[in-house]
Design a protein that fits this description.
4 copies of one chain form a homotetramer.
Chain A: H1 14-32, H2 51-70, H3 81-84, H4 109-127, H5 134-163, E1 187-190, E2 193-197, E3 213-217, E4 220-223, H6 229-237, H7 249-258, E5 266-268, E6 274-278, E7 281-284, H8 296-305, E8 309-310, H9 313-320, E9 357-363, E10 389-392, E11 409-411, E12 420-421, E13 424-425
Parallel strand pairs in A: 9-12
Antiparallel strand pairs in A: 1-4, 2-3, 5-6, 6-7, 8-13, 9-10, 10-11
Helix pairs in contact in A: 1-5, 2-4, 2-5
Pfam family, one (chains A, B, C, D): FGE-sulfatase
GO biological process, one term (chains A, B, C, D): ergothioneine biosynthetic process
Keywords (chains A, B, C, D): Iron, Oxidoreductase
Chain lengths: ~425, ~425, ~425, ~425
Amino acid sequence: MSAASPSRAPGHGPAALHGAYRAVREQTEALAEGLSAEDCLLQSMPDASPVKWHLAHTTWFFETFVLERAVPGYRSVDPAYRRLFNSYYVGVGERHPRPERGMLSRPTLDEVRAYRCLVDERMAGLLAQPDLPDDLAALVELGLHHEQQHQELVLTDLKHHFSRNPLAPAYRPRPPAVHAVHVAGERLTFLGGLVEIGHGGCGFSFDNERPRHRVWLEPYALAARPVTNAEYLAFIADGGYERPELWLSDGWDTRLREGWQAPLYWQRGPGPSWWHYTLHGLREVAPDEPVCHVSYYEADAYARWAGARLLTEAEWEHAAQSPPSLASLGTLLEDGVFHPRPAAAGSGLRQMFGDVWEWTCSAYLPYPGFRPAEGAVGEYNGKFMVNQMVLRGGSCATPASHLRASYRNFFPPQARWQFSGIRLAW
Amino acid sequence: MSAASPSRAPGHGPAALHGAYRAVREQTEALAEGLSAEDCLLQSMPDASPVKWHLAHTTWFFETFVLERAVPGYRSVDPAYRRLFNSYYVGVGERHPRPERGMLSRPTLDEVRAYRCLVDERMAGLLAQPDLPDDLAALVELGLHHEQQHQELVLTDLKHHFSRNPLAPAYRPRPPAVHAVHVAGERLTFLGGLVEIGHGGCGFSFDNERPRHRVWLEPYALAARPVTNAEYLAFIADGGYERPELWLSDGWDTRLREGWQAPLYWQRGPGPSWWHYTLHGLREVAPDEPVCHVSYYEADAYARWAGARLLTEAEWEHAAQSPPSLASLGTLLEDGVFHPRPAAAGSGLRQMFGDVWEWTCSAYLPYPGFRPAEGAVGEYNGKFMVNQMVLRGGSCATPASHLRASYRNFFPPQARWQFSGIRLAW
Amino acid sequence: MSAASPSRAPGHGPAALHGAYRAVREQTEALAEGLSAEDCLLQSMPDASPVKWHLAHTTWFFETFVLERAVPGYRSVDPAYRRLFNSYYVGVGERHPRPERGMLSRPTLDEVRAYRCLVDERMAGLLAQPDLPDDLAALVELGLHHEQQHQELVLTDLKHHFSRNPLAPAYRPRPPAVHAVHVAGERLTFLGGLVEIGHGGCGFSFDNERPRHRVWLEPYALAARPVTNAEYLAFIADGGYERPELWLSDGWDTRLREGWQAPLYWQRGPGPSWWHYTLHGLREVAPDEPVCHVSYYEADAYARWAGARLLTEAEWEHAAQSPPSLASLGTLLEDGVFHPRPAAAGSGLRQMFGDVWEWTCSAYLPYPGFRPAEGAVGEYNGKFMVNQMVLRGGSCATPASHLRASYRNFFPPQARWQFSGIRLAW
Amino acid sequence: MSAASPSRAPGHGPAALHGAYRAVREQTEALAEGLSAEDCLLQSMPDASPVKWHLAHTTWFFETFVLERAVPGYRSVDPAYRRLFNSYYVGVGERHPRPERGMLSRPTLDEVRAYRCLVDERMAGLLAQPDLPDDLAALVELGLHHEQQHQELVLTDLKHHFSRNPLAPAYRPRPPAVHAVHVAGERLTFLGGLVEIGHGGCGFSFDNERPRHRVWLEPYALAARPVTNAEYLAFIADGGYERPELWLSDGWDTRLREGWQAPLYWQRGPGPSWWHYTLHGLREVAPDEPVCHVSYYEADAYARWAGARLLTEAEWEHAAQSPPSLASLGTLLEDGVFHPRPAAAGSGLRQMFGDVWEWTCSAYLPYPGFRPAEGAVGEYNGKFMVNQMVLRGGSCATPASHLRASYRNFFPPQARWQFSGIRLAW
């Protein structure tokens, strides 16, 4: 599971690129290990794709955007895949409907694995060329970061699929329990002023992180760690789900329509306490773990109840730009835990990266001067810039090398199936 | 494929019953042969269940209604299956939601096959008893007829699942083409009068076929064979799908809402002609085959266009009660064709049994004096007696030993995924 | 309110026809008396039309089907009305969408009343002709019976509209209470045999009542009177709305989806008892009145709970063909009560006509040999012959001269806003 | 129509307040003049309320938030109104469901007018007090601005209601045509920097405009006037509604689902050109008028097609803070035109205020340090701060005294029934 460690992040020389390619591709396959062909076909909702589809789509990305462009007269592995595994790139042509991805028992899982192998071989040939043009190298790098995003989705989607099975299957065995230290949720203050956010360096970034630009921030304070289950249980016990005055109007309507009484995957019992479905199966809710699988609406209501507010993405990024201490790193994909863990003891900001994505109160909008990438890959980010809120910081399902302070994740305010949690601000 | 031939139909002695049990169970498994675990998990709509679920549910039926009752202190193979594989028997307790059957990657297909084996072994032990009580024998027989119904559903559901895959997978290879003789749709007349319908003999029947009772019939005529694709194409060409005056009001609303332009599975092209998805893959529509996959609404509109009407179930049954000639037998499951075939030459009623179910204009209602069976199996039929129309005669997916003149099938008027066709009456 | 008494039913000579015309038209207007223009615009659901629309549509019927045909070069009162007030006659052309009838603040109520006057004048001219052709006279008669149907709808639709207003407006003052005698629900038996039903005489009938034809009936028994509120309350108290085994499967799904706990318009309280909205405003449920505003699903579940069944339409008609005693007549529109009343003391079948429509367990289907009327009026009945159940006997909102033993009313099984009740059979 | 001119804007002394009260209330009634009771009952969609409801709700606001608080032992005009005319104030108690407002034929329009009179009398008594406490005066002022918002909604909602009538009723006669000068859409540049936006002065503002705060702006350019119909027609002609690459992903899905081909109220013909429904009836689309009734999605797609972008709310407000020239004022409610008019000749920013609301690319979010008002009126704005976009500048239906540079309007991105248009930025 250590294949794609941050120190082997996608780099710049051809050899480094090839190494990164192999590492990322292997990590994806490692995530699918132990899953049956049936498991990999599940699709529990339109938003959550089958694991097999992720395996194929990430491969399609390299075939469509890299090999087709790089290899004159390129012959695709299977012409039907162009449509079957296109996610949403209108510029590439027709797409198999998203809610129907679970209908693809053919090609089989074995055929999709063979597809991966074939494309990997062809990519290896390409990456062995000493003079890979910069634009192709950039597309390969984009494809790797794209695949890392899908690694997280493999886990969050699978969790959703499995949660619909009354047998509550465990994806991975539960790791040995660690003694959790209770960590208070103290406030850390920041001065703000005219700061800079966005990606400005030479490493990789998505187009939506650019350009780096100035933002004016008033002084603010952040909680040292995300809200815990114990704290969230107090919100529930105080009638948090019954008091419309705590909620945004759309949030309250959603809560009523969906019948929400607790975060996604939570259930009463067995016994008097709350349990939740995890990738280790059904477990009792642990008080010191960060609460997760809450929507923006719940995060916002919690913050209002707590006399606080959610942070803006600029506040988060400004705070996260200081050199990260060890403490600010939480659980990431490579830890192989696939579940958020309690904050570490110590001082300063903890779990800024990892464990749970933090809902910000910033709508997902273009930065001043934003320009989408050229061609069909320009559909990657820009066309989703409405009706979504930004999340920051990564989760226990995010690869370490995939994160950076300028990274912007985004989901609609009602989404709950990501490892999404809450950090308070004042 | 000959295991459950009509001559070995469910009988009465214990040995005969055990033989019938084995034959029916093996026939189910033969239908699933060649399908991957992924194929068997597909669920394309709430009405159509995964093949794996059919394999398990038919087994659940024997475990729940026979073994639990017959064996004191019976220990179920897996207590979770009681809920997972209950279809709609409220009397048995909770049910896994029907639209979520495709979410059950666990238990795996192999585990479900093992479940079948275990229950078969236990049933073998039970059926070996020399003094099996009559009520248990009757439940076993019910279970076998129940499983035969699911054999047909395995095929019709799988056809629907596969049809959603752009690759149009073939379930079975296409059989060699036979030279079709054109058979005219002549009218055969019947006198009617005070006739009897319903099941009255000593063989098996479902509760909804009983009691046998008197019905008054005016003289009527029936078409010698079902409507063919060629005839239906003339209806389409004459604007059949564009003329509301031909349709029932609900039918026209459905046609508009669903955008129907032709029977289910039909598509324009490749080329100028109509093709349709079959269990042999995509094929050009053959003119002399009976039209199928039409709804009641389409059948009714076609009949109106043709200056005829649909037959009533009493008319069908009265006509079918004469000793069946060879000609009146059409294609059945055992033929292994899984697609309706053209009518045979000759005279008299043809294809009364097999090829396509025939929509009658009779609503599915209780016969005078109807009494549902006792206990949870009483939910088998009676509670569906509203909003459905009766179909008669069986199809190319119906086991031969499953049919009889009194057999009543029923579906809502908008249903199209069964092998449902049209026989005209006057 | 006595204008259109049964003794002045639509007859045959021109003078009689003109008299009937005036009587029916005046009765419609009398029903709208006291309603404001706002009241007459209300549309609470797509199925229930505004009173103003009923006033206009019944007039449109005479203009479109009679005047346009009878008067060469006829100039319509307003060409736009042809579309605005067409209900569902595809043969007449486009229709204003049914759910949008409440959007027609223009033409105003005054303009619609003027429209009525103008058409009445023109009709008077036509009806004054000594030699009115038979086909025209028949269309006039059809239009009068059509208008009588809409008189009932004016009341049932208005009740639905008003029920959505928290002020619970009273349409008419409550009549003085009459002392109700408790009448037991005894069974009356009938021999059946080969009987005749359907309309065969020379008076008016709708096409769906024809032809008169033979039906075989086994012996049966009917309850002397409809089920009362007291009896229905016992069903509720016995968990009738909580026991799926009492319900048809579609009925139970509907009950869950709609949250039904009692008949339409019923509510708990004020106080511990049940109240219901009536056309006299909010009233406590009276035990001896017939229960009404139940769906077919509820009627069927009640009958199952009571160890009985619903009657068939042939049973009802056979029983109703005996010369009606005074007792068999219940409350009708002309009584001006607009609410069902308790059964009268005495013996024999009571309330066969009036008070509440009786759900039969017969699906609404064509009689053997049914032929719809020629032309667009052929859409009147035939195209609705699917997914509906037959009701018999009329209600407290049905004009007396509109009813006869062969009369078939029909509604979908979930419909509750008509004055629909239950008579048990065995 | 000049009653509530800007010079008589809600002020501070009791006499001024009383004057403003009378002016605003009279203006509301003037808007309803000429409408029938039926017109005032129409509700064409849940978002658009009946005019009668607006008349009552604005009165309810004064009764609930001012009189109940100011008058000890206050007896409401009708206790039922508290619930009937509550819009969304959970803190005030139950509300009549929004989609059911059109069901309230009672109270009648006359009764609602009487309600207005009674409350106006009581308010007059209150406002005549020499020592009206500041908090009450502030609530009165809030109520007046609230009522002005509803004046705009009276017009936009009525337009929607009337548009559903095939007769296309004219609300007001069409004013004489003015010769339009073609005005080019030149760019005006602004330097930006660390600017201030939000309300900071002593006049009235809503809580969502506060606090005034610093924002960093990069240099930007704005179009001198909104996009015209002629320009938008070029977008349509260039396939703007057929090219997904121009649209946000959610926007494209909405366009497909709703079948949008042009702005709301537009239709092809009569004749080859585009016509649209206006408050003067059906009119041909005039090329030099600002395009309106477009959603955010259409505004965004148009801007992308034009090689530009939408402006941010901070950019708009910064540009609008300069002392308004006469030219920057467009058509407002008091002009009595109720339809946007072509830009005036001249130079500088035109139509910054009036004619059409301008969609900004800013999500509607709280300003840094935002605090909602205390009590139930705190629900006025804050709870809607998600899933909406900000519009700026007012329209031809906005009262002049209601606007200011800091004013924030907001609607979901799919909303089209406001007078919403497009100003480009670069």
